[in-house]
Amino acid sequence: MDKFLKYPNEQIDDLLCDGLKIIQKQDSYKFAIDSVLLANFIKADKNDRVIDIGTGSGVIALLLSAKTDAKEIVGIEIVGEAFDRAVRNVKMNRLEERVKIVHGDLKEAVKIFGRESFSVVVTNPPYMMINEGKISPNPSIAVARHEVAATLEDVAKVSWQLLSFGGCFYMVYRTVRLVDVIYKMRSLGLEPKILRFIHPKAQAGPNLFLMMAKKGASGGIKILPPLVVYNSDGSYTDEIKQIYFGKRPEV
């Protein structure tokens, strides 16, 4: 597998799911648990065409190939080096027939793919606005963490345009912007239908949430039981262990 390594400081990590591997770079953005939790939250069947907007190195697209029966999974990424890694990750895992990676700006996705061309849109967008914290000089890290290349509004608008009527939008985001997300989703016709809060520990408040919204749906939202990441001793909870080993809990 070393033949797929291209740049200095790259390494191959185990995704602990159906034998999947991923190339990551030490001094670049590396995926975190939020991407894994999002991939496990998504439902897609053999009739679904899925797009991951802002796919980075393609971790969510790779996991969805194992966790769903989606007939096609597409990832779009603006940062050239991250796009290149995503392409190599697809090849390394021999998923070329099912997973496609496109180099482009997510704001141009409708021009690239066409309106209403997907039944499922997935995203783990940057959590921080431009005026929050220090922006990394590394383009991969900057785009992943801050709204440098796309804002929350851009993500919502493009997702609505890409989705077919009745299609589902899935995201993971930080709780401090929950109101912003619900407002923007509903104002565009993406009705929030499922919400699950992620707690670092049982005794701590949530810092992230998973949401599914549906295009053109009526009102009414289902709140799932909280997802707790760590036990009091710092070890992963049983549910997180199941998720990491590729077993999706029924909800």
Automatic annotation (TrEMBL):
Gene Ontology MF terms: N-methyltransferase activity; nucleic acid binding; S-adenosylmethionine-dependent methyltransferase activity
Methyltransferase keyword on record: yes
Keyword Zinc: no
Pfam families: MTS
Gene3D superfamilies on file: Vaccinia Virus protein VP39
GO biological process: methylation
Top-rank taxon, per record: Bacteria
PROSITE patterns: N6_MTASE (PS00092)
Alphabetical keyword list: Methyltransferase, Transferase
Methyltransferase small domain residues: 35-128
Record InterPro entries: DNA_methylase_N6_adenine_CS, SAM-dependent_MTases_sf, Small_mtfrase_dom, tRNA_Adenine-N(6)_MTase
Listed CDD domains: AdoMet_MTases (cd02440)
Annotated protein name in UniProt: Methyltransferase small
Native organism: Tepidanaerobacter acetatoxydans (strain DSM 21804 / JCM 16047 / Re1)
Lineage of origin: Bacteria, Bacillati, Bacillota, Clostridia, Thermosediminibacterales
